[in-house]
Write a structure and sequence with these properties.
The protein has one domain (71-268): Orthogonal Bundle (MetI-like fold), CATH 1.10.3720.10. By secondary structure, it is mainly alpha-helical. It has helices at residues 7-24, 26-29, 61-97, 99-113, 117-127, 132-159, 162-169, 174-210, 222-229, 241-268. The chain is elongated.
């Protein structure tokens, strides 16, 4: 199987796996704690003691990035799981039940999507305590509207196929039809969309942290690290570029894997008949 993986997908799989392994084993990999001050200098250049140098208050930048990557990945992963669980179940339910249930859910989603997600999140986070749990729930629920739209559109097409009609004639309940008939045949676009939603969550939490409404100091995610070190760019110090580059590589890697999975599932899985 792996010998048939395209080079781009293999590259994406390698970096995605590497990033997740770093996130899992961050305490074992990081040379220092995430808030340990290891130098009396500001933005020290790379050295044997700190490979990427230090930040503006003398903390090891590599250690900060390892812990920041861990925070970014886990928040994005949990937010993506919430958005997909909520959005896909409600989308399938709306397509299957139809009528007023479909209309009520769809109009509510239209209302939510009419407000830019970033502005909506900023309003909510400005009046609620900014904790990791709140960030995950807010991001997951806001992003579930996009998943709902995709899941409903796919389910509407599948719902008129012969094998679904046969299940209805057998008297199967909504749960059976959704999870045994619709879901297996909707996996292909949903898997690809999950990769895109994960990337969106990474960029979203990074943006919130850069604006000061994400992960709060002394903890940091990748976006917060860009903000912490952005001032150094004025003096020709590129400490902010390393977390920014990590965000870009993570986003591209996940996208490459999602594209490959989509091509595999599309070619191997057809509708049930």
């Amino acid at each position: 199987m792996f010998t048939r993986i395209p080079f781009a997908a293999m590259l994406g799989l390698f970096f995605t796996s590497l990033f997740f392994l770093i996130a899992i084993f961050a305490p074992l990999i990081a040379p220092y704690g995430y808030d340990d001050v290891v130098s009396s200098g500001f933005w020290d250049p790379p050295a044997a003691e700190y490979w990427l140098g230090t930040d503006g208050i003398g903390r090891d930048l590599l250690s900060r990035m390892i812990y920041g990557l861990r925070t970014t990945i886990w928040i994005a992963t949990l937010a993506t799981l919430i958005s997909f669980t909520t959005g896909s179940v409600l989308g399938f339910l709306a397509a299957e039940m139809g009528g007023w249930v479909d209309q009520a859910l769809s109009r509510f989603v239209d209302l939510m999507m009419s407000i830019p997600s970033l502005i909506f999140a900023l309003v909510i986070l400005s009046i609620t305590p900014i904790t990791v749990g709140v960030l995950i729930v807010v991001m997951g629920l806001l992003d579930s509207t996009r998943v709902y739209r995709l899941a409903r559109a796919v389910a509407v097409d599948i719902n008129v196929m012969d094998f679904v009609e046969a299940a209805k004639l057998r008297g199967e309940k909504y749960g059976w039809i959704i999870f045994r008939e619709i879901l297996p045949n909707a996996l292909s676009p949903l898997v690809a969309e999950m990769g895109l939603r994960f990337i969106f969550a990474v960029l979203f939490i990074s943006t919130l942290s850069f604006l000061g409404l994400g992960i709060q100091p002394p903890q940091a995610d990748l976006g917060g690290l860009v903000k912490e070190n952005a001032e150094g760019l004025t003096y020709g110090i590129g400490a902010a570029l390393w977390p920014a580059l990590t965000i870009a590589v993570l986003a591209i890697s996940v996208n490459l894997v999602a594209d490959w999975v989509l091509s595999r599932t599309t070619s191997l899985k057809g509708g049930r008949g």
